[in-house]
Inverse folding.
């Protein structure tokens, strides 16, 4: 069944304070804190649930469970989402369809609030090392991460990202920024990998104090959640976002 979902939102790191102010426009992935991410799904007894409108001049009472705050975009029972901060009875989530098709290099991701009552834990058992070993794609088409296994419980990581690749003016002027992630041997700890100079414990987020590239990759079912410290490339380049496996 067709879900009328929004096109990809801007993938920019936000602080907890900004997220409180801006609602869920940027999705549940925040930088510089221990993110309360978890894998959830639309409950089996909820045949359909609509995303919730953000506050606006026309709808100052949103976001809320009121009928006037319902967006056109919706999910169905069993759809899995990445869930983060809560706001009253609402949960900030991001959703990427498992069968998402790329159009001109990009595919759809939808972020917004859903009613907490419509969601249930999806379960996230510790992944096997092989679960990491794929080519991972970010919906906006400007970042890919290739992960392959070493002989031990470690992985090799090669990521490439750009900023402005789909901006014709930037392309014409040659001002597309780029960056990369490179790790020959990064240890898997539970569902996470930390990579970068002096950064080995993924229980903590990447440090924003230095100038060395650091990144944390956490696996939640079919989603790979990635954070970095904005030091992994040129101006505005970041690997931050949710990724899915290339089919």
């Amino acid at each position: 069944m067709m879900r009328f979902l929004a096109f990809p939102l801007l993938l920019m790191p936000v602080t907890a304070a900004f997220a409180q102010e801006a609602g869920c426009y940027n999705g549940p992935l925040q930088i510089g804190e221990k993110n309360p991410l978890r894998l959830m799904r639309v409950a089996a007894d909820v045949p359909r649930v609509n995303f919730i409108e953000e506050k606006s001049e026309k709808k100052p009472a949103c976001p809320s469970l009121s009928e006037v705050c319902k967006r056109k975009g919706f999910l169905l029972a069993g759809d899995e989402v990445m869930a983060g901060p809560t706001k009253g009875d609402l949960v900030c989530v991001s959703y990427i369809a498992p069968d998402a098709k790329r159009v001109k290099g990009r595919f759809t991701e939808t972020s917004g609030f859903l009613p907490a009552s419509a969601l249930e834990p999806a379960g996230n058992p510790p992944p096997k090392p092989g679960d990491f070993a794929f080519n991972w794609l970010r919906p906006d088409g400007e970042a890919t991460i290739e992960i392959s296994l070493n002989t031990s419980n470690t992985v090799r990581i090669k990521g490439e990202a750009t900023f402005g690749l789909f901006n014709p003016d930037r392309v014409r002027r040659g001002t597309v920024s780029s960056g990369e992630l490179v790790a020959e041997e990064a240890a898997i700890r539970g569902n996470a990998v930390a990579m970068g100079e002096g950064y080995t414990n993924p229980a903590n987020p990447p440090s924003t104090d230095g100038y060395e590239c650091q990144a944390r990759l956490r696996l939640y079912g079919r989603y790979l959640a990635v954070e970095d410290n904005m030091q992994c490339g040129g101006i505005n380049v970041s690997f931050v976002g949710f990724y899915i496996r290339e089919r």
In short: The chain has two domains: 16-121, 129-245. Residues 6-21 have pLDDT under 50 and may be disordered. Residues 16-121 form one domain. The CA atoms of residues 47 and 77 lie 5 Å apart.
